[in-house]
Amino acid sequence: MKKLLVRRLGVASVAKFVGVAQAIWAFIAGFFAMFGGIASVATHDEWDWATKVGASIAVALVALIVVPLVAFLVGWVYGAIVSLIANLFLHTSKGIEIDVEEAK
To answer: What crossing angle do the helices spanning 49-61 and 11-42 adopt, rounded to 10°?
Structure first.
């Protein structure tokens, strides 16, 4: 077994990782929420069919594109803040030892 010592986290790297993870979760949640939104639009009695189609497309675009983009931005900021704070702790504690093993 090999020991590694982590002394610093890459802020941009951690921020990107957390942002992408958040965007994936938001896409999955948006996919399921899209069906509820489309069902809500379809049952709206006061709209004609063209308005319902347009609103359904808007709901789908928001759920599948806008929500994951916002989640990525929030996750990126969160990852950057957490990695900056973690770097302060890593600096004062002289790092973290990690045991790693090479795959055979």
So the answer is: 160
Tell me the pTM.
0.82
What angle, 0 to 180 degrees and rounded to 10, lies between the N-to-C axes of helices 67-92 and 11-42?
150
Q: pLDDT grade, residue 1 (50/70/90)?
A: confident
pLDDT in tens, 56-97: 999 999 999 999 999 999 999 999 999 999 999 998 998 899
CA distance 8 to 23: 25
Classified as helix, coil or strand, 5 is strand
DSSP assignment, residue 4? Answer: E
- What is the helix, strand, coil percentage profile of the chain, to 5? 75, 10, 15
Q: How would DSSP label each residue in 65-101?
A: IIHHHHHHHHHHHHHHHHHHHHHHHHHHTT-EEEEE-
Q: How far apart are the C-alpha atoms of 90 and 82, rounded to whole Å?
A: 12
The domain spans of the chain are 2-96
